[in-house]
């Protein structure tokens, strides 16, 4: 079972996860972090930036992003190349040559998935993968129905995801229709999955991902297949769990040496 940690706010959740990542990086300075975009991981990046101000050196850390839009120029402010650079690489002081984002160039998209998988394998995989969850249940951009064994490939975004992401663009029509995303099989190869969900809008989907059946209909439910998965939610996102009291009890009585 995934460990579910219920925190009072996204900031507390971000600080908790950042502290854990900082410990990993102090232990092994060439740690590999799997990074997500969207609003959810921002408190983690903000807290990691504070760890950096307090002396944490992240310059040896490698990062692999989950996904990218197809057809947006890399220098478009909403391409995930730009977003990762702006929200992760720069504030955390990562070495840009150690940060990879899938290639969403239309001209070479046919081979982009395989190339990213090869890069990930050659690197030795991801230590800790940060994940958000879409309101339709997607992780990465693995939309409902995605194979639980899928690898990095092109996907078509659902109308729901395009509507959810319209806030980042001037008009809803500007949201690309296609993306390239790590597959669920790819994500499951990371050593540790940390799935974050904040706000009432995520309460239903995170309960289904954690407590419902493992199903391609809710791709986030794939975390139930992973031997080390941690789910961090705020109170607003925790309202639909059937076993919330148990999760709180487990976390309160967790031995300190276990970490996240
Ligand atoms: C982004 C990603 C997506 C988001 C999800 C939630 O790289 O992989 O799965 O995590 O769409 O987005 P937010 O956090 O904006 O609610």
* Residues in helix, %: 25-40%
Mean pLDDT score: 97
Residue ranges: pLDDT <50 for 5 or more in a row? Answer: none
Number of domains: 1
Number of strands: 10
Structural class by SSE content: alpha/beta
What is the helix tally? 8
Instruction: Classify the beta-strand content into a percent band.
Output: 15-25%
Radius of gyration: 17 Å
Small molecules held by this entry: fructose -6-phosphate
Largest sheet: 7 strands, parallel
What is the CATH class designation? Alpha Beta
Descriptive keywords:
single chain, Rossmann fold, binds fructose -6-phosphate, alpha/beta, globular, 260 residues, 16% strand, seven-stranded parallel sheet, 8 helices, 10 strands, three-stranded antiparallel sheet
Briefly characterize the structure.
The mean pLDDT is 97. The chain starts with a strand and ends in an 8-residue tail after the last helix.
What features would you describe in this structure?
With 260 residues, this protein is of the alpha/beta class. The chain has one domain (3-254): Rossmann fold (3-Layer(aba) Sandwich). It is 33% helix and 16% strand. It contains eight helices and ten strands. The chain has helices at 10-27, 42-53, 80-92, 109-123, 159-165, 184-187, 203-211, 244-252, and strands spanning 3-7, 32-35, 62-65, 67-69, 99-100, 128-131, 153-156, 178-181, 192-197, 229-234. Strands 1-10-9-6-2-3-5 form a seven-stranded parallel beta sheet, sandwiched between helices. Strand 9 (192-197), helix 7 (203-211) and strand 10 (229-234) form a beta-alpha-beta unit. Helix 1 (10-27) crosses helix 2 (42-53) and helix 2 packs parallel to helix 3. The chain binds fructose -6-phosphate. The site of fructose -6-phosphate has 14 residues, from loops.
């Amino acid at each position: 079972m995934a460990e579910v940690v219920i925190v009072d706010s996204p900031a507390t959740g971000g600080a908790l996860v950042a502290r854990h990542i900082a410990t990993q990086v102090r232990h092994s300075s060439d740690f590999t972090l799997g990074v997500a975009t969207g609003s959810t991981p921002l408190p983690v990046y903000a807290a990691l930036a504070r760890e950096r101000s307090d002396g944490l050196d992240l310059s040896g850390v490698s990062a692999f992003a989950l996904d990218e839009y197809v057809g947006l120029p890399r220098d478009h402010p909403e391409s995930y190349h730009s977003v990762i650079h702006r929200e992760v690489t720069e504030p955390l002081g990562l070495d840009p040559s150690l940060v990879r984002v899938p290639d969403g160039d239309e001209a070479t998209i046919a081979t982009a998935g395989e190339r990213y998988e090869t890069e990930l394998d050659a690197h030795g995989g991801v230590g800790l993968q940060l994940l958000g969850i879409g309101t339709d249940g997607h992780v990465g951009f693995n939309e409902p129905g995605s194979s639980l064994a899928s690898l990095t490939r092109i996907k078509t975004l659902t109308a729901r995801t395009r509507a959810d992401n319209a806030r980042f663009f001037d008009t809803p029509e500007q949201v690309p229709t296609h993306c390239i995303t790590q597959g669920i099989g790819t994500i499951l190869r990371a050593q540790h999955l940390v799935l974050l969900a904040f706000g009432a809008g995520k309460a239903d989907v995170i309960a289904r991902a954690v407590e419902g059946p493992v199903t391609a209909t809710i791709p986030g439910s794939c975390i139930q297949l992973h031997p080390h998965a941690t789910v961090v939610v705020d109170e607003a996102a925790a309202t639909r769990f059937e076993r919330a009291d148990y999760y709180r009890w487990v976390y309160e009585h967790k031995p300190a040496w276990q970490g996240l």
